[in-house]
């Protein structure tokens, strides 16, 4: 890539520390190129306030704010939830947002005739891969600029120094300088005291948690929620029909109030290093629990077990930025087939960070009380003897041979 050819770029812009200083840095290092900022709204709420004014003041020519919330929920979150996809207990909040944002980013870049796309991901993280693989899918020949892989800045403290020297306004200070990612599904926290795995997260410290409270601070009485699903998709909360997006927002409120969805994990990043993160996913944790509970009565044994195996692969694909791949699409097709029976209602009890099953109902249920009962039934218990003889035949033959 010849820097002299870069006249106009599209920047994935959040208004956070990284992307805020990238605008003046691009101006300094890429021939005072035009910078078009693009922010993908995936539910980060107040983080979008004042974004246009900030982008323009720091040198951008314009700002696009793309409302991606419905697409994010329907095309990314729900397919992952139906798959039961997780990565080392992490519910993929940053992972499945990136391909959604990148798709919108490419659309604007092509519309504006941009010479390159810019992102603020570090060379240590997963997001650089997620963004760039999605960009390669939609615009395979588009040049990509990643300042963290070029500039001399080595730390977030040095980023703040640069911002102060260039009069870039920041909402953070050096003491609250966690690396965070927020959307309608989750909030992640990394850095500062969390880099020492011996430090307990400051859950009770005012301002640390943003989507809920510590289980210690949650109410002393439980809260019940009821979720209805049709073919694996949530369609109602407490008997009220809602879109999946509305359900997630409501569950975030009730889950957060009850201390649900906190995860402290040392995860294995794609680039090879281990990294510690603290995640808040209140609504998502409830949704996953309800969906999995319903599947226990709606899926047959072999389908359920195979789905659990493939969920690991699905989660790894999403975590590794491989959303736009034939394998992910094939796995989604498999998942959709399994979900044809996953229709019913689940009741959960939320109490101080815990999710307790309180009832499952489904007309598609494969559970038969008449067969499973400890009371009288038509099940012939004598049939088990022949089954055990055949099932145990290889063990019996092996023992006979070994005995000789």
Protein architecture, described:
Helix content is 40%, strand content 19%. By secondary structure, it is an alpha/beta fold. The chain is built from 13 helices and 14 strands. The chain has a 5-stranded parallel β-sheet with strand order 3-2-1-4-5, sandwiched between helices. α2 links the parallel β2 and β3. α7 crosses α8.
The global form is elongated
Spatial arrangement of strands, main beta sheet: 3-2-1-4-5
CA radius of gyration is: 25 Å
The total of beta strands comes to 14
- Low-pLDDT stretches are none
Helix content bin: 25-40%
Structural class: alpha/beta
Number of helices: 13
Order of helices and strands: EHEHEHHEHEHEEEEEHEEHHHEEHHH
Layout of secondary structure:
Blueprint (H helix, E strand, L loop, with lengths): L7 E5 L4 H13 L4 E8 L9 H7 L4 E6 L1 H15 L13 H16 L3 E3 L8 H12 L5 E2 L10 H10 L13 E4 L4 E4 L32 E8 L2 E5 L2 E2 L2 H14 L4 E7 L5 E7 L1 H17 L2 H19 L6 H13 L5 E8 L2 E8 L7 H4 L10 H9 L1 H11 L1
Parallel strand pairs: 1-2, 1-4, 2-3, 4-5
Antiparallel strand pairs: 6-7, 7-12, 8-9, 8-13, 9-10, 11-12, 13-14
Q: Top keywords for this entry?
A:
404 residues; alpha/beta; five-stranded parallel β-sheet; five-stranded antiparallel β-sheet; 14 strands; 19% strand; elongated
Short summary:
The chain has 404 residues and is of the alpha/beta class. It has helices at residues 17-29, 51-57, 69-83, 97-112, 127-138, 156-165, 244-257, 282-298, 301-319, 326-338, 369-372, 383-391, 393-403, and strands at 8-12, 34-41, 62-67, 116-118, 144-145, 179-182, 187-190, 223-230, 233-237, 240-241, 262-268, 274-280, 344-351, 354-361.
């Amino acid at each position: 890539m010849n820097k002299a050819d870069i006249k106009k770029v599209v920047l994935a812009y959040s208004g956070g520390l990284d992307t805020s200083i990238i605008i003046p840095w691009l101006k300094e290092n890429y021939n005072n190129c035009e910078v078009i900022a693009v922010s993908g709204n995936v539910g980060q709420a107040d983080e979008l306030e004042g974004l246009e004014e900030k982008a323009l003041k720091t040198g951008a020519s314009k700002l696009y704010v793309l409302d991606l919330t419905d697409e994010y929920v329907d095309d990314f979150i729900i397919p992952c939830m139906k798959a039961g996809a997780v990565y080392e207990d992490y519910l993929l909040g940053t992972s499945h947002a990136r391909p959604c944002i990148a798709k919108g980013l490419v659309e604007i870049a092509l519309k504006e005739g941009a010479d390159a796309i810019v992102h603020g991901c570090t060379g240590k993280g997963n997001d650089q891969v997620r963004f760039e693989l999605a960009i390669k899918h939609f615009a395979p020949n588009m040049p990509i600029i990643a300042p963290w892989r070029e500039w001399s800045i080595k730390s977030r403290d040095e980023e703040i120094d640069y911002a102060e020297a260039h009069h870039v306004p920041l909402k953070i200070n050096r003491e609250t300088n966690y690396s965070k990612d927020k959307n309608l599904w989750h909030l992640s926290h990394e850095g500062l005291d969390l880099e020492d795995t011996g430090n307990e997260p400051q859950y009770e410290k005012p301002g640390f948690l943003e989507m809920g409270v510590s289980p210690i601070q949650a109410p002393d009485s439980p809260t019940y929620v009821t979720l209805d699903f049709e073919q694996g998709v949530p369609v109602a909360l407490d008997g009220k029909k809602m879109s999946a997006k509305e359900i997630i927002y409501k569950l975030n409120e009730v889950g957060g109030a009850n201390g649900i969805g906190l995860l402290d994990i040392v995860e294995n990043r794609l680039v090879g290093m281990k990294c510690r993160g603290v995640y808040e996913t209140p609504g998502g944790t409830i949704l996953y629990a309800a969906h999995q509970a319903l599947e226990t009565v709606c899926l047959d044994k072999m389908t359920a077990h195979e789905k659990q195996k493939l969920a690991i692969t699905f989660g790894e694909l999403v975590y590794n930025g491989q959303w736009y791949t034939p394998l992910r699409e094939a796995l989604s097709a498999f998942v959709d087939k399994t979900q044809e029976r996953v229709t019913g209602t689940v009741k959960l009890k939320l109490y101080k960070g815990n999710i307790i099953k309180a009832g499952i109902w489904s007309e598609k249920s494969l559970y038969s009380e008449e067969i499973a009962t400890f009371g009288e039934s038509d099940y012939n218990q004598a049939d088990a003897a022949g089954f055990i003889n055949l099932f145990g035949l290889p063990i019996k033959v092996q023992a006979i041979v070994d005995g000789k």
